[in-house]
Amino acid sequence: MQFSIDGIFDEAENRYLKPEELQEIGQYVASIAERMSAYRVLRDREIELIQQAADQFQLDMPGIETAVLERSVKNGMLTLRHCGIAMLLNDHNFVQKRLLNWLKDSIELHQTQSADAAFFGLIKQQLRLSLNAQQMALLEPFFNLVETVIPAQEEEEMLTVAGIF
């Protein structure tokens, strides 16, 4: 169950729910079918999504060490799974408590910031192709939390003659 909904029920122990609390519960209940559908896509197509991202990753970074590639794939897979569960529960704390600190420490320890950022971006591309807009909108807030640890890779600006003058 969603963390904030748990809190709503805990606080309402000695009173009736307020209109805004009922509205929050209603919004969650109304979105549960789409959340479950998105989660099923993640679960059923995980290997395909990760493989497509890994294939593109190797094309984009042909000289990448195998150990770095494997670590980025594992980090990406764990991120996808944690964000999927958090989206299903609509619980931001799930990602914060169970993924972010560990992921941040792993990236710093192994110095894989750029590789993980690139792979994470490729996973997001694959998800945009696999999920509908509503499903992506449900999942995106949890991916945004991950971007506090793995910032999106910045696009390199091309230097042009026109840009010099």
Q: Overview of this structure, please?
A:
The protein is mainly alpha-helical. It is built from seven helices and no strands. It has helices at residues 3-11, 19-60, 66-89, 92-110, 113-130, 133-146, 161-164. α2 (19-60) packs antiparallel against α3 (66-89).
Keywords:
single chain; 165 residues; mainly alpha; elongated
Mean pLDDT score, rounded?
88
Radius of gyration: 19 Å
Structural class by secondary-structure content: mainly alpha
Tally of helical segments: 7
Outline the low-pLDDT stretches. 155-159
**C-alpha geometry:** elongated
- Through-space gap between termini: 58 Å
Strand content: under 5%
What's the arrangement of secondary structure elements?
Blueprint: H1 3-11, H2 19-60, H3 66-89, H4 92-110, H5 113-130, H6 133-146, H7 161-164
Helix pairs in contact: 2-3, 2-5, 2-6, 3-4, 3-5, 3-6, 4-6
Write a concise synopsis of the structure shown:
The chain has 165 residues and is mostly helical.
